[in-house]
Write a structure and sequence with these properties.
The protein is α+β, with helices and mostly antiparallel strands. It has three helices and six strands. It has a domain of 97 residues: Double Stranded RNA Binding Domain. It is 36% helix and 19% strand. The chain has a four-stranded antiparallel beta sheet. Strands 1-2 form a two-stranded antiparallel sheet. GO terms for molecular function: peptidyl-tRNA hydrolase activity; ribosome binding; translation release factor activity.
Length: 139
C-alpha cells in the first residue's frame, strides 16, 4: 500500500520499512503477547519519490528527527497492530506535508509614524531622567 500525500507526492510501499514490538499501556495479559506497537521507517535521503528540491527541504526541516537520513514514526496508541499501522502512516504523511509547505517570504516594513514618534518621546524621557540624576556642574 503506497503512501499518498496529495497533491505533493506518492511514496512507494517498497521504500517504507516496518518494525513491530510490544506496546506498553493497557491491555491486560494480552499486551504481553502481541506486537502491536508499529514503527514506520522511511529513508528521506535515498527516496526516489522526491525531487531534489523536496529532498533538501525535508532534510533541512526534519533534520532533528532524522537519524542517518531515516525518519522513524511510532504508533502505540491502539491495541490493534493494524490500527497502529494506519496511525503511523497518517503521522508520516502529516510530517511530510508540513515539511513541504513553502515558506512565507517576509516583506520588510517600515515603522509607522506614530511608533517612531513614541520611540523618540521615550528616548527624550529617558534622557531627561538621566540628566536629572547628574550632579550639578560647578560653573
Amino acid at each position: 500500500m503506497d503512501l499518498e500525500i496529495p497533491p505533493l507526492l506518492t511514496i512507494p510501499s517498497s521504500e517504507l520499512g516496518w518494525r513491530f514490538s510490544r506496546s506498553s499501556g493497557p491491555g491486560g495479559q494480552h499486551v504481553n503477547t502481541t506486537d502491536s506497537r508499529a514503527e514506520l521507517l522511511w529513508n528521506v535521503a535515498d527516496s526516489s519519490a522526491l525531487t531534489d528540491e523536496q529532498r533538501l527541504l525535508l532534510l533541512r526541516r526534519l533534520g532533528p528527527k532524522l537519524v542517518a537520513g531515516v525518519i522513524t514514526v511510532t504508533a502505540s496508541e491502539e491495541r490493534s497492530q493494524l490500527r497502529n499501522r494506519e496511525l503511523a502512516l497518517a503521522k508520516l504523511a502529516r510530517l511530510i506535508s508540513n515539511g513541504l509547505v513553502p515558506e512565507n517570504v517576509r516583506r520588510p516594513s517600515k515603522p509607522t509614524r506614530g511608533s517612531a514618534r513614541r520611540h523618540r518621546m521615550a528616548k527624550e524621557h529617558r534622557s531627561a531622567t538621566k540628566q536629572q540624576r547628574r550632579r550639578p556642574s560647578a560653573d
